[in-house]
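Title: Prediction job returns without error message
Component: structure pipeline
Severity: low
Priority: P3
Assignee: unassigned

Description:
Job completed but the reporter wants confirmation the result is attached to the right record. Sequence as submitted:
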Amino acid sequence: MHDLKFIREQPAQFDAGLALRGLAPLSGQVLAMDAARRACATELQEWQKARNDASKQIGAAKAKKDEAEAQRIMAAVADLKQRIRDGEARELDIEIELDAFLSAIPNLPLEDVPLGVDETANREIRRHGEQPQLAFTPKQHFELGEGLRLMHFDDAAKLSGSRFVVLSGALARLERALAAFMLDLHTQEFGYTEVSPPLMVLEEVMYGTAQLPKFAEDQFQTTTGLWLIPTAEVPLTNLARNTISTDAELPLRFTAFTPCFRAEAGAAGRDTRGMIRLHQFSKVEMVSIVTPEHAEAEHQRMTACAEEVLKRLGLPYRVMLLCTGDMGFAARKTYDLEVWLPGQNAFREISSCSQCGDFQARRMGARYRPEDGKGVRFVHTLNGSGLAVGRTMVAVLENYQQADGSIAIPPALQPYMGGLAMISAA
């Protein structure tokens, strides 16, 4: 949600930010609705004052035993009461319309975000690790998983339809091992607090992190009105909803391993096979709640935490700064980590780390009291994958594949696999 005060005071700057997103100017429409709401509020105040004054006049008329004057004033008060009721309803309608309009406008990018309309304008920041030089033609992860007889798409289709997978045996354990490894790293070394959140949340919680209303079609909703989380970012960030933290309590850092559910499955015809785009997938998420002054440093820190997972797994990757046209709706700035997949001969996204400014905080009512104790301010929120567990498994399978189709287990994961060093076909 955007700050109305900022739009009133800096309409040109607001429209310039929207232009970077490829959007037409919207400040005029926002300010027109805001002016109508404020005019309605002013009119209501005048009527309420007139009603209060008239109520006093009724008492004075009755004290003088002027019943006719008292009746005349009472009739005027009744008219004012009806005007007030109608005005309050009109004010509420304008507020709902204004909120709905503002809630559909994406966040404004920071100044250092590259300008562009799609992923071709993203900027590479750095690379880490050497791509494996395989002496054979590498296979894609689904060929490896099916060859091991441990990755079952046909069985999943019988249970749930397309874009689901059943993992068994060592691959099921590998998924669990990856999640445990990531959680241990984030909690024991990076200071995140592990959380086990609900997987179904209220509509206002989805609204708070900006999944609703704009992206309702991308989500799964239950018959009771609850929504399945598309990412643990939703419940973790909303832990700060409708709260006022103290300056000393910040930053708050949370991490969680959860299933994630998404009705959308990416571009039509892309990644139709395998585990890259599923309706249900697992992810370790990181969320930070910070003061505005610490948001940029926290963004760099969070990205480094995600990178460290890849480094310890020995997976080559690159860091991309997303352009204005490729960023998520709620983000001001985003780094994507893209891992190398030999089977695809390409880098693919495995983590997005974003700072959202006070965009989500305004929707959630998440604030803090500065150290000087003067008033309250909105916190800044950040979120990042640390990492997408399914895609990390894909990367392990493809980068550690052997000529015979077996998979070497990265040393960092072997303690979580009961000492298993190789996954071979049963």
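Comment from assignee: result matches the submitted record. The radius of gyration is 28 Å.
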